C-alpha cells in the first residue's frame, strides 16, 4: 500500500473539477434518440428530469410504491478544522455544517426534503455527507454518511463544534416523527472500524459511500478504506478489500503508476455473490475500472472490465446489470464538469452498451420496472437533478 497520501477517495476524484453550479449541456425536459442527454442503443427511451435543485445528490433508492429517495451530501458549512485533502502534503481547512439532506420524489411527482440539517463536510468545494439512503417502513430511513478524511478529522469536529458531527462516517437509522425532530440511532461506526481494523493496511481514511440491504444486514462500500463492509446487529466486519492496479502515467511515458481501487457501491447479485463497482484512484485511467464479484470464498475477482470511474451499479429483475460512469474519459482528462453515462454491463467483457451518455457528473442509479433513475451534477450546490430514463423493454 502507498505510504504517501495518494489514497484517491471520491473527494480527490471530484475536487477541482467543479466549474459550475448549474447543468451545462445537461438533460432538460424530455427527449428520445441520440445526442446530448439522450438515450441510445439498448432501446433507450424517454428521458425526464424528475427532481432539480439538489445539493450534491449521490446515491438513491426507489421504494415498492414508486417513491424515490435521494441522499444529498450538501455543501459543508462554517465549522472548520484542519484536515486532509487527498494529494495535499500539508493539512488544509475542512469545513462542516448541517447542509446535508434526504429528498423524497413522490410517485405523484412532488419533490421535498424529508430530513434536513444533516452533517456535511467539505474539502474545498466537494462535500461528503449523506451518501446513500434506504427506506424501511413508512417512517424510517437508513442513511450512510461519508467523511473523506481520517477518523481524527471527525474527532476534531466533535471536540470543537459539537456532537452532531459524530454522525459522519456512520450508518444511521433515522425515524421520522411528523413535525417533530427526527430520532437518530447509530447502526454502525465506520470510522471506529477503520481505526481498529484498517482493512487495507494503508493510511487511516474512511468514506462510507453506499448502502444496500443484505440478508438482514447491510453492505457498505468504504471508498476510503478500499473495502466492502457488512453491518449486522450493530457489528461491522470487513467482507473484502479490493486490489488496486497500475497504469501508464504520464501517458506515453512508459512509467507504471499505481492507483487505488476505490469501491463505490456493493450489492448482492441474483446469484448470491456480492458485486462491487470501482472508481479507481488517480490518475483515473480510462477503461481501468471494473465490476468485481465476491463469491463464497471471499475473494474479489474481476467480473467485467473496460469501464471508467464507476460510481454505482444495480441489477434489474431479469439479472441485467447497469452501472454509472461519472466520467467516460477519466477524471484526470476532464477540464470542467465531468461528463459520464449509464451503461449496461456485459459479463466477462471489456465492451458495454451505452444506454444514456453526455450526463453531467452522474453518480447514482436505481431501477424500477422499465426505468432507471440517475442522479446528475453530483458535485453541484443547488444544481443537482434526478433523471428518469426509460429502458425501452
UniProtKB/TrEMBL annotation:
Record-linked InterPro entries = 6-blade_b-propeller_TolB-like, ScyD/ScyE-like
Query: What keywords does the record list, in alphabetical order?
Result: Signal
The positions making up the signal sequence are 1-22
Region feature Disordered, mapped onto this chain:
26-45
Q: Name it.
A: ScyD/ScyE family protein
Amino acid at each position: 500500500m502507498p505510504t504517501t497520501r495518494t489514497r484517491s477517495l471520491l473527494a480527490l476524484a471530484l475536487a477541482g473539477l467543479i466549474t459550475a453550479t448549474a447543468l451545462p449541456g445537461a438533460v432538460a425536459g424530455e427527449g428520445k434518440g441520440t445526442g446530448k442527454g439522450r438515450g441510445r442503443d439498448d432501446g433507450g427511451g424517454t428521458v425526464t428530469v424528475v427532481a432539480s435543485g439538489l445539493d450534491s445528490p449521490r446515491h438513491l433508492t426507489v421504494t415498492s410504491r414508486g417513491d424515490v429517495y435521494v441522499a444529498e451530501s450538501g455543501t459543508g458549512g462554517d465549522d472548520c478544522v484542519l484536515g486532509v485533502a487527498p494529494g495535499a502534503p500539508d493539512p488544509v481547512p475542512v469545513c462542516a455544517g448541517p447542509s446535508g439532506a434526504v429528498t423524497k420524489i413522490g410517485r405523484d411527482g412532488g419533490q421535498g426534503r424529508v430530513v434536513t440539517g444533516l452533517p456535511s463536510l467539505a474539502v474545498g468545494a466537494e462535500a461528503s455527507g449523506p451518501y446513500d439512503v434506504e427506506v424501511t417502513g413508512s417512517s424510517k430511513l437508513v442513511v450512510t454518511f461519508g467523511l473523506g478524511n481520517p477518523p481524527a478529522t471527525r474527532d476534531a469536529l466533535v471536540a470543537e463544534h459539537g456532537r452532531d458531527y459524530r454522525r459522519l462516517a456512520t450508518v444511521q437509522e433515522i425515524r421520522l416523527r411528523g413535525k417533530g425532530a427526527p430520532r437518530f440511532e447509530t447502526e454502525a461506526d465506520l470510522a471506529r472500524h477503520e481505526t481498529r481494523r484498517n482493512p487495507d493496511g494503508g493510511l487511516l481514511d474512511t468514506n462510507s459511500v453506499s448502502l444496500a440491504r443484505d440478508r438482514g444486514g447491510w453492505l457498505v462500500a468504504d471508498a476510503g478504506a478500499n473495502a466492502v463492509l457488512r453491518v449486522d446487529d450493530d457489528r461491522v466486519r470487513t467482507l473484502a478489500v479490493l486490489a488496486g492496479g497500475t497504469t501508464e502515467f504520464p501517458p506515453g511515458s512508459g512509467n507504471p503508476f499505481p492507483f487505488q481501487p476505490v469501491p463505490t457501491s456493493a450489492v448482492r447479485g441474483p446469484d448470491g455473490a456480492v458485486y462491487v463497482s470501482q472508481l479507481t484512484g488517480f490518475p483515473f485511467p480510462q477503461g481501468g475500472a471494473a465490476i468485481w464479484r465476491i463469491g463464497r470464498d471471499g475473494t474479489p475477482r474481476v467480473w467485467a472490465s473496460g469501464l471508467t470511474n464507476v460510481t454505482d451499479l444495480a441489477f434489474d429483475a431479469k439479472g441485467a446489470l447497469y452501472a454509472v460512469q461519472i466520467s467516460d474519459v477519466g477524471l484526470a482528462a476532464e477540464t470542467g464538469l465531468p461528463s459520464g453515462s449509464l451503461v449496461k454491463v456485459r459479463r466477462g467483457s471489456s465492451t458495454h452498451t451505452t444506454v444514456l451518455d453526455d450526463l453531467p457528473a452522474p453518480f447514482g442509479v436505481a431501477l424500477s420496472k422499465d426505468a432507471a433513475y440517475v442522479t446528475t451534477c453530483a458535485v453541484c450546490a443547488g444544481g443537482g437533478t434526478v433523471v428518469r430514463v426509460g429502458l425501452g423493454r
